[in-house]
Fold this protein.
Amino acid sequence: MTRKLLLTHIDVPGIESFDIYRQKGGYRSVEKALKTMSPEDVVEEVKKSGLRGRGGAGFPTGMKWGFLAKPEGVPRYLVCNGDESEPGTFKDRFLMTKIPHALIEGMIVSSYALGAEVSYIYVRGEMMPQIRILEKAIAEAKAAGFLGKNILNSGYDLEIYIQPGGGAYICGEETALLESLEGKRGNPRIKPPFPAVSGLYGCPTVVNNVESIAATVPIINDGGEEYAKIGIDRSTGTKLISASGNINRPGVYEIELGVSVEEFIYSEEYCGGIAGGKRLKALVAGGSSVPVLPANLALKTAKGELRLMTYESLADGGFVTGSSMGSGGFIVYDEDQCIVRNTLNFTRFYHHESCGQCSPCREGTGWMEKLLQRIEYGGANMADINLLWDIQKNIDGNTICPLGDASAWPVASAIRHFRDEFEWHILNPEESQNRNFGLAHYADPLVPVS
Amino acid sequence: MAEEGKFKVTIDGIPVEVAPGTTILNAARLIGGDIVPPAMCYYSKLEGSGGKCRTCLVKVSKGSEKDPRPMPKLVASCRTTVMDGMEVSNITSDEVLEARKGVVEMLLINHPLDCPVCDQAGECKLQDLSYEHGTEQTRFAFERRTFERVDIGDKIQLHMNRCILCYRCVYVADQLTTKREHGVLSRGDYSEIATFIEAALDNDFIGNVIDVCPVGALTDKTFRFKNRVWFTKPVDAHRDCPTCSGNVTLWYKGDDVLRVTGRKDEYNEVDEFICNTCRFDTKRTQDWILEAPTKVDNESVITANHYLNFNPPPVIKNSSELQAANEEQLARTERLK
């Protein structure tokens, strides 16, 4: 049985209320941090833990905190990024719904570490129930003396505010989030300066994912070194994975980093195998933005090693034969799914969500969608595949923010690994309307692990 | 080692010393010539502009003397500041030229390419950019995005089809006027410059949005369809204006002033912003004190026509002072006859 750190008490009835959460040992980390540790100690523990940002980029959280500029007389801010909108990712919503105090507790500890006296939780606008839940949690924590002036007589003051977003995916990009939080149009800023130097209202700011902030709680409770013992190599701790697609048991799972992809898909503890006993065709391991992998490369790396759920193993082989941990949006495709249609679906999303600030992303995402539509519904020719490849290449790396890259990678990987399926679509426009291409010829028919 | 307090940066092999905080683009402009990256959205007089069009992408092959690692991606030269010892490749890098070609293609896929009927033709930065970096044929085989033409204010027309969303006009309204009435609505490729429910732009300095627009999206209604710019002759002039500096360029056709604009430098940026009265309502020669013909780049289509045969307006003929100021130009005209 895997060790759970975030979802330990997830099944306890009433865990969303302060009293039950406190009975189960909640807010111990706040007591420990504020009474026995200096802010620098907290940062040091997080550095020791090796925790990496859970929002997608996987940047070490402790290092990010270490970059925060600390000029005299200027406030510092912690902003929690709850604008979870990546297709395939729903772990933060789960956490905020079921166990909101874990986030509030993490916010207090993290704010204390950074010296922030005002912190914000920016929650996606569609998540109104979660916003209500968090507001209630904040009120309860405040009533119990864990928020407000002079918390636990430590002399430390903290207020946490919730800000609903307007429902734009781009506002999950940290600088666009800050713009939106300031009340402006959510256009990503041009970096540098980075938020650690000039963020919210021009002040030093740290933006962290919901899960990263919640993960500071077990780190402070048990110590960074203890946390770092879980996982493999530089992928430490546990990670929430939102599993969806053609699997028997979709849902949010907390895994110890280092579980193999094969075990995660086929074991009864997690996804429980492919639904209907079908075969695995493809896998998106970390949300729609990461490259899609065909079954053979999903389960084993190009070197023939077992693919593990770690930052390093999933990225093994670069973008040619690897993918990325991303935000943990684990989407499984069985043999009956159409990769062209799926790529069209993702591209439509990026087209819809592009902010329109910089030209390659604004124009390129729309163009890719139009081409994919033509490939999916007929009227395309073979040159369109190369054109699609060129467009994604012209977007990738040339945009202000990572949304451009994120729109290019799924297209690039789909063409790279499933080119024959694209060609089949173009050559058989009518047949492709009625049936799907089926398993890629190199997809491995694997037996489930026992 | 660079001079005290200066950074040494090498662009396409040409070294230049600049003050810390200078952007790569401005350092390149100090060198001048072919190695200057094109800039469609950056405007040195507008704070915060730049970084959006991505045409000025360059490769930083050496980060600095201290940290010689190259930057992993191409960077927008207009928003990246130099470091001491930085080495930058622009036209010497195939990667940059390839990326720039890609960006130009993106900028053009939804552009109407209606240059034959566009007032901006001849002084359009997008035209220049496409000639230099574009491909001859488009690979875009879909219907282009279209918008209705809108009059925003009684003197300015917005032709959104042509817009490349450089945001310059938004910055102008933010930084020159007290209240911005227009902005960017919607997102992605549905984004458009628009006013709030057809509000009119009404401000003493709002005419400058026409000057800063790199394409023909914002045009001067008092000049619309009056003439092609290459048939008009720009003459620098000034007047005593209570609102602005009064330093302008008058665009003559025969003896008539067809339009008034700010004075633009070689990067198409105005030296000083001018007021609406100068721009729209002061179009008689006697309102102005003429200085000299505007210096126009030899490669510009504006010089390619009649401009070399400078035909001095009557005002110049009648004033010995103005004749002295225009000596060189008049002599050239004489020679060409």
About this structure: Residues 7-101 of chain B form a domain with the Ubiquitin-like (UB roll) fold (CATH 3.10.20.740).
